[in-house]
Amino acid sequence: MDGTSNRAAQRAVEAQELHQMGLSTAAGQAYLEMLGQGTRRVSPPPEVRSELAAAGLLGETAEAGVWLLNDPRQVLRAAARRHRRQAEAVLHLEHRLGTLWDRPRAAGTEIVEVLHGRSAVTQVADSSQLAVRHQVRSLDRGPYSPSTAGTMCPIQREMLPRGIRYRTVYGGDAASAPHIRRAIGEAMDLGEDARVHAAVPMRLRIMDEDLGLIVLNEEERVTGVLVHPSPLLAALIGLFDSIWATSVPLGVAEDIPRLDDVDGHTRRLLRLMASGLTDEHMSRELGISRRTLSRKVQQLLEHSGARTRFQLGVQAARRGWIV
Question: What is the mean pLDDT of residues 60-89?
Answer without folding.
Answer: 81
